[in-house]
Each structure stands twice: as structure tokens, then as C-alpha cells.
TrEMBL record:
Keywords: Membrane, Transmembrane, Transmembrane helix. The chain crosses the membrane at residues 37-60. It comes from Gracilibacillus boraciitolerans JCM 21714. The keyword Membrane applies. This is Uncharacterized protein.
Amino acid sequence: MGMSAINQIFGHHMSWFPNSISGHITEMLMVNKIPGALWAAASITIILSVVLLIASNFMLKTKEMAD
């Protein structure tokens, strides 16, 4: 819900926001060219996923050490 609300408020300013990936893919299929904003949105999504995986791993290790 949070990302959707941010996208609705600031979506016209941030075409690289991860929630806009489906729109960029639709555009890519229609014009047969990959839009630059799709690369940016996909990169941000991958980076955020890696950061969250690293954070969860760190939290798990910290929790195991506390027990």
C-alpha cells in the first residue's frame, strides 16, 4: 500500500519507480523498444531486493546470537 500511495502522489515525477514496471513493459511491447525508465525501475527493484536480503540475513544472524 505504501509504494502504491507514493506512486500515485509522485508517479508523474518518478517514472523509474518500481511500481511503474508493468507500464514500461506494456510500452516496450507496443513500440518494440526498451524505454530507459524500464532499465532504471528494474535496477532499483534489484538493488532494493538485494539490500532487503542482506538486511534480513543480518537480522537473522543477530537474532541467533541473542538466543
